[in-house]
């Protein structure tokens, strides 16, 4: 058991690159905190950082990376195209790279399949959607600005449209989606896998004020393992085959979320977590001008 190195685990992408199984999330990580969190995570051994233009913290994330002293090429860095930038992909990636203070990202994701009018967040462009955006993102492949492109918050219905469009030549490397026992999405994960798309799990702990924080099944398994419930949740995701992106700005939690070596969950424990019945979603689509979830992930 001591030889199990979950923190060194990676998953192969369809580009041939490897994505580390554990990445630090940065959504809602505040100014003055996020840079320190990134620095602490990298010093603790994390080699994967997830940010987005929409989080408003790319600049400080970049500062945290540099403060850590970890060479850029050892880090898997993801950022995301903002919804109002779908018609200006070339400018948006340049802006994100400038913010981050790096010449490339390892993964550039379309954050949501919603081409939102920049002048009115309640309006979707009538003449442009995610297929058009993907056409523009594909132009970045082969440049020195991105190592891979992918999507986020894509349901099966939208992935099918994307993959079946004649203009789509590149299969997304990743679909970053909400994955925790309250939103396990087995059909969507299986669909991603069947198309060679890696699933990356966001809100793996159930996000802020998580409904999973006092779940009896998790508490029982955690107690039996002598580990905190958060670690059980992260290993559950990794052992099910997706990368996990726990967010924290608390140094002790950043360390704890990376303290995953030397043990694993049994098949029975994984089945018990799979069977947790309560469903909840952290990120819905009611704030977007269009619907992007269709209940096709159950
Ligand atoms: N693509 C998308 O649309 C999308 C959407 C949502 C999230 N994401 C990505 O996924 C990342 C993670 O998701 P998330 O931020 O929603 O939620 P999460 O990682 O599931 O949970 C974060 C919450 O859990 C707390 N926490 C962290 N470690 C803990 C521990 N060991 N014990 C107890 N509590 C702990 C954090 O508090 P403290 O920070 O105060 O320690 C924070 O309140 C995001 O940060 C972002 O990078 C992407």
TrEMBL record:
**Sites marked Lowers pKa of active site Tyr:** 80
| UniProt cross-references to Pfam families, sorted A to Z | Aldo_ket_red
> Which keywords does UniProt give here?
Cytoplasm, Oxidoreductase
What name goes with this protein?
Answer: NADP-dependent oxidoreductase domain-containing protein
GO CC term, one of those recorded: cytoplasm
Example GO molecular function? aldose reductase (NADPH) activity
Determine the domain of life of the protein's source.
Answer: Eukaryota
> What is the active site of this protein?
55 (proton donor)
GO biological process terms on file: alcohol metabolic process; arabinose catabolic process; cellular response to stress; D-xylose catabolic process; ketone metabolic process
NADP-dependent oxidoreductase domain boundaries: 22-276
Keyword field contains Cytoplasm: yes
The cross-references to InterPro entries, in alphabetical order and at most eight, read: AKR (IPR020471), Aldo/ket_reductase_CS (IPR018170), NAD(P)_OxRdtase_dom_sf (IPR036812), NADP_OxRdtase_dom (IPR023210)
Organism whose genome encodes this protein: Immersiella caudata
- Subcellular location as annotated: Cytoplasm
Please give the chief subcellular localization of this protein: cytoplasm
Entry keyword Magnesium: no
Binding residues annotated for substrate, in chain numbering: 111
Q: Which family does it belong to?
A: Belongs to the aldo/keto reductase family.
